[in-house]
Specification:
Layout (H helix, E strand, L loop, with lengths): L1 H20 L30 H4 L1 H5 L20 E2 L8 E4 L5 E5 L2 E6 L3 E4 L6 E5 L8 E3 L5 E3 L3 E10 L2 E9 L13 E4 L6 E4 L2 E2 L1 E2 L8 E2 L3 E2 L12
Parallel strand pairs: 1-16
Antiparallel strand pairs: 2-5, 3-4, 3-12, 5-6, 6-11, 7-9, 8-9, 9-10, 10-11, 12-13, 14-15
């Protein structure tokens, strides 16, 4: 009985937090969101807008039954490594000075930079934010995905990546007007690498964070366990 009540309480808490993370902003007919650059993007695709359920089906269907890893269960970082369980919450964003980041779709370079920033939050591998000037913006088009709102960062706007006949939907996002606490990500974009894009950090290929909601990259210098898989919703 106690376990059942605890799970009900956790689920209720999750719904409140997820609503904060993924609320649908009020929209009016003909409303166009303002982005933080002077890019001349075309309007998003016409037709039915996506929903939270179609944008993040794995996340919405995942459970939250696994307990947070104990200190004994967490991977001990080696030399030059960080444990994601030492990251704070709310998250912090720091410049990854001198680290070279390359993002590709097939053989086409989408972005390359040595001025990336890492968003670090407890239990998550870092999300990498790339300055707009280091992104080949001709490959980006506004997505028909709904905008989502993060309690820590603000309202996100999503983009598709298009190269030739290949279109990777909702694989990049930015916070045009981030919260004051996360102002470092203004003028920068992050990319999912679980939908068709590949990313390298200092020549090593990054792995995507499990699931379809979070956009962290797993590199050789971070250790988990990582949030994102089934049952980890409350980590």
């Amino acid at each position: 009985m106690v376990t059942t009540l605890r799970r009900v309480t956790q689920h209720t808490r999750f719904l409140a937090v997820f609503a904060a993370h993924c609320s649908i902003p009020p929209a009016q007919e003909g409303h166009t969101s303002t982005v933080s650059t002077s890019r001349d993007f075309s309007r998003p695709e016409t037709g039915s807008r996506m929903s939270i359920w179609t944008q993040f089906p794995k996340h919405m269907a995942s459970g939250g039954s696994l307990p947070r890893p104990s200190k004994k269960e967490r991977v001990k970082p080696g030399e030059g490594q960080e444990s994601v369980w030492e990251y704070p919450r709310p998250p912090i964003c720091k410049e990854a000075k001198g680290r070279k980041v390359v993002i590709k779709l097939g053989n086409t370079v989408i972005a390359t930079t040595q001025k990336a920033w890492r968003m670090m939050e407890e239990s998550h591998p870092p999300t990498w934010y790339i300055p707009l000037e280091d992104i080949e913006q001709k490959y980006l088009k506004p997505s028909n995905a709904i905008q989502t709102t993060c309690e820590f960062k603000g309202q996100a706007k999503y983009y598709d990546v298009i190269v030739g006949s290949s279109r990777i939907k909702m694989t990049s996002w930015e916070y045009p007007i981030p919260s004051d606490e996360q102002k470092e990500i203004k003028g920068k974009m992050a990319f999912y690498i679980n939908k068709g894009l590949d990313a390298w950090v200092d020549g090593d290929k990054a792995k995507p964070q499990e699931g379809d909601f979070y956009g962290g990259w797993i590199t050789k210098d971070v250790v988990g366990p990582f949030k994102g898989g089934p049952g980890t919703r409350f980590w």
